[in-house]
Structure formats: structure tokens, C-alpha cells
Amino acid sequence: MRALVISAAVAGAVALTGCQSTGNNLGGVEYDKTALGTLIGAAAGYGISKGNANTSRQNNRAAAIGAVLGGATGVYLDNKEKKLRQQMAGTGVEVNRNPDGSVGLIMPGNITFDTNKSNIKPNFYSTLNKVAQTLTEDTKSGILVTGYTDSTGNDSINIPLSQARAQAVANYLIAQGISPTRINAQGLGSADPIASNATPQGREQNRRVELSIYAIQ
């Protein structure tokens, strides 16, 4: 069981831990995008507990981004997800919905960075421009950029490299007009692989940058 800490723009902060849920059920409410927005809005400022295989990924996301308030949150993020799916079609970027309700973008290493480099590939600029276009439409979203590496090397190399990659993406989005107050960047090294590190193809998938987009007050 784990806690998802969702900080709210309200006076005070109260920690609350619920019971572990199963399947597509979160805190007693069946996992539905709009319903999830309502649930998180009602629980803003509290911790919601949910068993999930991606524990550390969700904890890091939840700890880094601010408030999610109100039933309209789900609809707002639905619209962002839909537009980003359209824009990312054919780019190699995967758009999904994270279990905590945020919109997730997975940007694999074959289109983002060369091996052991933190300079964005020039061909990736156009994709990031499309992301920035959607995120600058309003100021209602917060963005967490997370960098990852494969398991080659050790933490003393991988964590700074993943942080530099995440920061490079964050800096580029800021340069496109997104306020730096809306973006956090973090590097988690080889943690939370999404594919096997035993093959070149798997390692390429694990060398990635992820964006998590939240609704904020």
C-alpha cells in the first residue's frame, strides 16, 4: 500500500491514508477519468492510498506537483489527453493516463537523446513544440518532467545524466513560453524500467523522458 500525496492550495495540510484498492478502483471509486478528477478534488490536501506496481513513479509524481481540485479536473485533463494524442500521432511519443489521473507522455531514447548525452536531438524539437503549443493554451496545468536511463553504468553516472535530460526538456518548454513555476524536473536514473535491460531494444525504451501533466489551482 502506498500514499499518493496531492498538495492543495488550501490552508493547512492533513495526511490521510486509505485502504489499498484493487483493479481499477481508487479510494472506493471505480477508475474513471472524470470520476477520478472528482475524487482527487474532494481529497485535495490529503494522501490517497492505492496499491500499484509503479509505486515509486507515482509517489515521485504526486510529491512534485500541486493541487488538483474539483470535478471539472477530469474533463480538463480529458481534453488535454485528446489533443496531445492527436498531436503526438506518428512521433513515437506514447500518450496515456497515469493511475493518479495525470496525463502521461513517454518519450523514448531513440527520439530524444543520443547515448550518454543530454543534448536534445534536433529532430525532436518539432515534437516538443507541439507539446508546448498545448501546454501554453492556458495556465491551469503543472508539468513534471522525469528523466530515466537504462541499467548500464551506476547511479553516480545515471542519476545526474537523467536529471540533465529532464532539465533540458524542461528548459526547452520554458523557452517556448511555459512559466518555470509550472514545471518541475527530476532524474531517477535507472529506476522504474518499462522494458527489459537485457536487450538493446529494451534499454532504448528505458532511456526515456516522461511528462506528467496535472491540473492545478
From TrEMBL:
Subcellular location: Cell outer membrane
Keyword Membrane applies: yes
Keyword tags: Cell outer membrane, Membrane
Coiled coil: none
Domain OmpA-like intervals: 100-217
Name of the featured protein: OmpA family protein
